[in-house]
Amino acid sequence: MRENETGKELTIIMDNCAGQNKNNHVLRLALVLVELGYFKKVSFIFYIVGHTKNACDRWFNTLKKNYRTMNIWTFGNLLKELKTSDRIAIHTIETGDFKHYLQFEDMFYNMIEGGKIFPGHIFTVDGSDETNKDCKTTMVIKEDDLRTSPPHTQNMKKDGIGSTQNGTRAETLANMMELLKALADPGISDIKQIELWKRWRVIALEKYWGWFKEPSDDVFRRHKEKTSEKNRERNAKKKAKEGTGGTASGKKRKASTKKTKITKKKERKQRQQQQQPQQQQSLPPMSMMAL
Predict the structure, then answer these.
(1) Termini Cα distance of the chain
(2) Of 37, 93, 99, 162, which is least packed with CB atoms within 10 Å of its CB?
(3) pLDDT digits (tens, 9 = 90+) for 38-91
(4) Could you tell me whether strands 7-14 and 152-155 are parallel, antiparallel, or unpaired per DSSP bridges?
């Protein structure tokens, strides 16, 4: 892809994971890339379960070759060990690089119809079809390339978004980078700050202790309140369950356990009764024992 030139086709292969990749947030990026003219055609492909390994996994193993045998204390240490391969380029991501694409996508595109994301494995936006004026905002979803089921076609363009306060749809899309807001840095959660200070600082080399900052009193207080709240909720659920006699499955489990204990007790008693006569027969007469 060259600057100021539309690429022909982009295909991205991703893991079949809904939380990270297979969702409206990521999938609608294909529409943005086509409508903005970065590529004529964009396809997001998800491998089926059990067949998700590809060439990228081999490169990750290459990266692990050095650093998994090293003590890594800082991000700088990690970068140093990762940059040892001539075949792999390492690019760092800064906080400002993360943009609020979801908010931007919601301005121009509808959500994918319910029930269509999970079974789909190929999501394509083809803007090269000149006979279809909405080709750049149309997504085709297929379960596979074997034509085992008909594809689902959906025009994702939002109704009534022909223009905005900043001008026409095309002008607004062209100024996307100005509209995109950087995501706020979420920071380190309270529990992780406490774990870094209490658990991991003690095993780090002294020269790296500066990376493990002592949490503030507010962090300890929030964590304590959160833990107490979770304990109260757990105890309340436990009491409520005991008050109602437990669930049906719980009652069955208790009855089964009780029955098992009784059966084992009977079997143990029978074994003892069977062993007693044998022991009595093996004992010598009392007169011989006295001798």
Answers:
(1) 106
(2) 93
(3) 999 999 999 877 766 777 777 777 777 777 888 888 888 888 888 877 778 888
(4) unpaired
